[in-house]
Amino acid sequence: MAFFEMRGIRKSFGRTEVLKGVDLTLDRGQTLAIIGSSGSGKTTMLRCINFLEVPDQGTISLGGEQLLDAGAAKKLSEKELRALRLRFGLVFQNFNLFPQYTVLGNLCLAPQMIARDRPDFKKNKKQIYKEIEEKAYTLLEKVGMSEKAQSYPCQLSGGQQQRVAIARALALSPDILCFDEPTSALDPELTVEVLNVLRALAKENMTMIVVTHEMAFAEEVADRILFLDKGVAEFDGDAKVAFGGECPSQRLRDFVGSIRK
């Protein structure tokens, strides 16, 4: 059984059907790259994975546990959706750091808020906050940003902000770390900074799902490729097959060829 699985995912906005019965599977420790042309449904797929959008049809399972059956009579409450979102870290295109907080504050904010629900919070608040801060420093070191812990987002380059955003997503220890075009707002030099962090995470067997237009990165780092075309999964399989000359999807071969020209 796959670690993460989506079956028959459909999502419409008004009369426009964006996802048309998409399936997806991913094993623990793998990196999946979601690729496709603009408007193919990549971001909508990622938002469904993170429960920022709820599919109209389909099921989502993680670690053998069914998280969602869109066809079930019971609809998930906002509280239940928030709990599910915590299992998926999400790094956005435009960083979305809180400008009023330092780098360290950005990493500690969500874990501290969640810690307030712990039954021992009042008794052990100082120790809990200390542990959260220590973890934050460890994560900043992992992404090469420990020296900027007391800086504010406005004092950082785009690449530095995105590395902080990655550390912030990791602070909640998600089962899967997701990225929505993490380098699209960066110039080439800063893009390298962020892709190097993703490469390091992949080597550590962090389970990741990356919506990307960086085909060289997808070919190098991804274990699996999901190629969406007009809301349909034209290919879901091994990355070596996806970028090889024997790829069974002519549409994917055409897409990759057009980008490599």
Task: Give a short overview.
The chain is an alpha/beta fold and 261 residues long. The chain has helices at 42-49, 78-85, 103-115, 121-142, 158-170, 188-203, 215-221, 239-242, 250-260; strands spanning 4-13, 16-26, 31-35, 57-62, 65-69, 88-91, 176-180, 208-211, 224-229, 232-238.
Description:
With 261 residues, this protein is an alpha/beta fold. It folds into two domains: 4-87 and 175-260, P-loop containing nucleotide triphosphate hydrolases (Rossmann fold), CATH 3.40.50; 100-173, no CATH class. It is 39% helix and 24% strand. The chain is built from nine helices and ten strands. The protein has helices at 42-49, 78-85, 103-115, 121-142, 158-170, 188-203, 215-221, 239-242, 250-260; strands at 4-13, 16-26, 31-35, 57-62, 65-69, 88-91, 176-180, 208-211, 224-229, 232-238. The strands form two sheets. The protein has a six-stranded mixed sheet with strand order 6-7-8-3-9-10, sandwiched between helices. Helix 3 (103-115) runs antiparallel to helix 4. The mean pLDDT is 92.
Q: Which SSEs are present, and which pair or pack?
A:
Layout: E1 4-13, E2 16-26, E3 31-35, H1 42-49, E4 57-62, E5 65-69, H2 78-85, E6 88-91, H3 103-115, H4 121-142, H5 158-170, E7 176-180, H6 188-203, E8 208-211, H7 215-221, E9 224-229, E10 232-238, H8 239-242, H9 250-260
Helix pairs in contact: 3-4, 3-5, 4-5, 5-6
